[in-house]
Specification:
The structure holds two protein chains of two kinds. By secondary structure, chain A is α+β, with helices and mostly antiparallel strands. In chain A, strand 4 and strand 5 form a beta hairpin. The longest helix of chain A is centred in the N-terminal third of the chain and has 37 residues. The radius of gyration of chain A is 27 Å and the shape is globular. The termini of chain A are far apart. The N terminus of chain A is likely disordered. Chain B has a single domain, classed as MetI-like (MetI-like fold). Chain B is built from ten helices and no strands. Chain B is elongated, with a radius of gyration of 23 Å. The two termini of chain B are 22 Å apart. The N terminus of chain B is likely disordered. The chains are: A alpha+beta, B mainly alpha. Chains A and B meet through helix 11, helix 13 and strand 18 of A and loops of B.
Chain lengths: 546, 290
């Protein structure tokens, strides 16, 4: 008994101590909470974390060319004009407060905002715009083609920029709106080895400097970048426009969709934009908001009659047969759990001129008839070499196995060969591939990019891939129509022209769009202003915490 | 003398009471043999009794295990159990072929090296050293990646990885057996090198090769699956365990897609390891329990 009492006494003492400790800790934590709550806007002082599988190729605006680059560059470098995220169509003022093009779209004039200044305090002037555009062109990065056709850039005064073009280009505003055309502080960049000279592709040595610094006028500045790990952005406290709410933004490398989902659910990340619709459906967490929005990305299969290894006569009838044999709805189910749309032409849904185009439909009877008409009544065997990737939630292996089964039903046998992306690039740029599957994301907001890439027009990559390097396939109607579209000044006129181009591209039957995947935005529910931007992916300056 | 040697070779019982269970036949060995036997039967007969077609979509996609689909369905609505069972038809033959070819090539090289000695030996053994210096998976990846994905290339790559093991093993055996008295006797009676090798040396050198080959079976299954997992082995849509696990790996919450083929690999590797232990005990008198 006595023994027992002693023990009980000790337990009580221990309990008292424990309670005291817990109380002290709770008090301390409570104190912290009060502090941050009391200062007002404290939530926005906490860093915002974006979980992404980063594909950064460069942090230099003139050399960068990737989805994550778009987010980073938009935050740190202002462009002349912005895009209204509400409709992803209307241009809004940014550095330029006014802009206009002449009647035949060969000259554009921009009037710069006097208040605009770089993060280091120097005013942003016309000379910086001229210097940035010339550098973009001369460094010869992937986005250099945006500046193709510029004959001169004039700067009559510090607030006026006049760009003159060799030929009509109604897409020039869309290119200027793209994040790669952000304005760089020419003085700072030049001091660190940058150059806008003709030979800048060899003499410009500033790329390493851009890994550690940003030199823009944007709402954020680069605080640090660790390759393969994270980008840290700090608010530009002297931003000349509306001050962004969030003090710090971190873009963190998180490879797969499942981990991104877990991090958003636990609060380790605030935003994930690469979760596939199937995975997103399983999230049942009131702290996480899921929004499925239409994207401008698409996945397609491409037929190249002129590929070196091709042994089948891929005439237009046969190509139409392939189109009619694919079960589009089935593929959207299998790859995205229904989270996508069919697409008519190689111009994604939502772009000018795509509204009235007829969507593809499965019709196996028609496919068999077309095979007969095309001279292959018993079907044929063809190599399908494609990159072994998973993009926009579409797993290419899954998609191609489904297409293999679909085409098998009408007698077309696919020999599937998934390869590494780099191997695929080498093959497609070399001898070509008879049948392949690829994906595409827009560079800017004008539909002309699709004609220049997928159209059967001279200079378009797919025209020579479908035919051969020496003898690309040319569809003269597309050449004429696109010239007219580039010179057109009204959107109504352009819409009509692009619709006609879309019909021509459908008739080409070289590029067969399979699915236009929806984009899943998964984010913490306390976040406001979440959106998807056609030019810039995500504009972090529009975000804030409740 | 001759009789005694032959007994050692074949592992015949050396005067043990016939009623007792032989010492090498332990529980793990029995289990291992049973597992392998079961998988071989599956591989041979699955097309007669499998519940579904392995390449066809037969149910609602991504449903968990149920009575209808015991191991669930994958992203294309195919039955995971059926595909796993059909997987034996690529995994087991691959392992068999790789081991067989590697043993033949490895033994030929090892025997030549051991028998001739001198610069031939040095040359061949340095080549095998170089091959062994690479981590197996890395070398197999390099070979397959340069030849292009596909089971045939993966097979070739695995043979490239595996032959040095047997070459070294046999060379060591040949060198030690070469010095035994019966070989000296044969030489003195005028036996040629070929006859010496085939009749007097090889029969006494094969034991460790056999033991190793049995143990390696599981490793080859594993390596083949690894190559398929990273997209260098079996091509879609063939039901190969490694590529099935790879399909499942991107769908963490649909665990069943990877679970069934994973379990299959586990049992096969375990089975061969158990069996290999038994074979070693059976063939090697030194480790035999007394």
């Amino acid at each position: 008994m006595n023994d027992g009492k002693v023990k009980t006494g000790r337990y009580v003492a221990a309990l008292v101590v424990a309670v005291a400790v817990v109380a002290a800790i709770t008090a301390a934590c409570g104190g912290d909470d009060d502090d941050s709550g009391g200062s007002g806007g404290g939530n926005n002082d906490r860093p915002l974390v974006i979980a992404r599988d980063m594909d950064i190729n460069s942090m230099d605006p003139s050399r960068a060319y990737c989805d994550t680059c778009q987010i980073y560059l938009t935050a740190t470098y202002d462009t002349l004009i912005g895009l209204d995220p509400k409709d992803n169509k209307t241009f809004v003022a940014r550095v330029a407060e006014k802009w206009e093009g002449n009647a035949d779209r060969t000259q554009y004039t921009f009037r710069l905002n006097k208040k605009a200044k770089f993060a280091d305090g120097t005013p942003l002037e016309a000379k910086d715009v001229k210097w940035s555009f010339e550098r973009l062109a001369n460094v010869k990065g992937s986005a250099a083609y945006f500046m193709d056709g510029i004959t001169s850039i004039e700067t009559p005064d510090a607030q006026t920029v006049i760009v003159k073009l060799a030929a009509s280009d109604s897409s020039f505003l869309a290119k200027v709106n793209a994040s790669y055309a952000g304005i760089i502080n020419s003085k700072v960049a030049t001091a660190n080895g940058a150059s806008n000279a003709k030979d800048a592709d060899t003499t410009d040595k500033a790329e390493p400097w851009f890994l550690k610094n940003s030199a823009g006028s944007g709402p954020y500045t680069l605080a640090s970048y660790t390759e393969g790990a994270e980008i840290r952005l700090a608010r530009n406290e002297s931003y000349w426009g509306d001050k962004p709410a969030l003090k710090e933004v971190i873009i963190k490398q998180v490879k797969d969709a499942v981990t991104q989902r877990q991090q958003v659910e636990t609060g380790d990340a605030d935003i994930a934009m690469q979760i596939d619709p199937d995975t997103a459906k399983k999230i049942k967490n009131k702290n996480v908001t899921i929004k499925e929005v239409p994207s401008f990305n698409f996945v397609y299969i491409a037929l190249s009659p002129g590929a070196k290894d091709n042994k089948v006569d891929l005439n237009p009838k046969i190509r139409e047969a392939v189109r009619a044999a694919v079960d589009y709805d089935g593929i959207i189910q299998v790859t995205l759990g229904g989270g996508g749309k069919k697409q008519a032409a190689p111009i994604p849904n939502g772009f000018l001129g795509t509204k009235n185009l007829a969507l593809p439909k499965r019709d196996t009877a028609k496919a068999k008839q077309l095979l007969k008409d095309g001279g292959q009544p018993n079907g044929f065997e063809i190599d399908a070499i494609y990159p072994n990737v998973n993009v926009y939630g579409v797993d290419f292996n899954t998609m191609m196995q489904k297409i293999q089964a679909d085409l098998g039903e009408v007698g077309i046998k696919l020999k599937l060969q998934p390869v590494e992306f780099t191997v695929w690039v080498e093959k497609i740029r070399g001898d070509g591939i008879p049948m392949t599957a690829v994906y595409f994301a827009p560079d800017h907001t004008d539909p002309i990019q699709y004609v220049q890439y997928f159209g059967m027009v001279p200079g378009a990559p797919w025209a020579s891939r479908a035919g051969s390097k020496d003898k690309p396939i040319v569809n003269q109607a597309e050449v004429d129509l696109s010239a007219k579209a580039l010179a057109a000044s009204s959107d109504e006129e352009r819409e009509k022209l692009y619709e006609s181009i879309g019909k021509e591209m459908i008739a080409d039957a070289i590029i067969l769009p399979i699915v236009n995947p929806n984009l899943v935005l998964a984010y913490r529910s306390d976040l406001e202003g979440m959106h998807y931007s056609a030019c810039c992916n995500l504009e972090v300056q529009r975000l804030k915490r409740k | 003398m001759t009789a005694g040697v032959r007994n050692l070779e074949t592992g015949l019982k050396l005067g043990r009471p016939t009623a007792r269970v032989p010492a090498w036949l332990t529980l793990p060995v029995g289990v291992g043999a049973a597992i392998i036997f079961a998988w071989v039967i599956v591989a041979l007969t699955v097309h007669w009794w499998a519940p579904f077609e392995p390449l066809q979509s037969v149910g609602t996609r991504l449903t968990g295990p149920s009575w209808q689909h015991l191991a669930g369905t994958d992203a294309l609505g195919r039955d995971v159990l059926t595909r796993t069972l059909y997987g034996t038809r690529s995994s087991l033959p691959i392992a068999g072929i790789v081991i067989a070819v590697a043993v033949v090539i490895g033994c030929a090289i090892g025997a030549i090296a051991g028998l001739f000695g001198g610069w031939v030996d040095s040359f061949l053994m340095r080549i095998s050293d170089i091959t062994l210096a690479f981590p197996p998976i890395l070398l197999a990846m390099t070979v397959t990646a340069s030849l292009g994905p596909g089971l045939r290339n993966a097979l070739f790559a695995m043979v490239v990885v595996w032959w040095p093991v047997y070459a070294r093993l046999l060379r060591a055996q040949v060198i030690s057996v070469k010095q035994q008295d019966h070989v000296t006797a044969a030489v003195s009676m005028g036996a040629g090198r070929g006859r010496l090798l085939v009749h007097h040396i090889l029969p006494l050198s094969m034991t460790p090769i056999l033991v190793n080959a049995t143990m390696d079976f599981g490793q080859v299954v594993l390596l083949a699956a690894s190559l398929s997992f990273i997209g260098l082995g079996a091509l879609p849509p063939s039901p190969e365990w490694g590529s099935m696990i790879s399909e499942g790996s991107v769908r963490f919450y649909e665990w069943w897609i990877a679970a069934a083929p994973g379990l299959a690999i586990l049992t096969v590797v375990l089975g061969f390891n158990f069996l290999g232990d038994g074979v070693r005990d059976f063939l090697d008198p030194r480790t035999r329990r007394r």
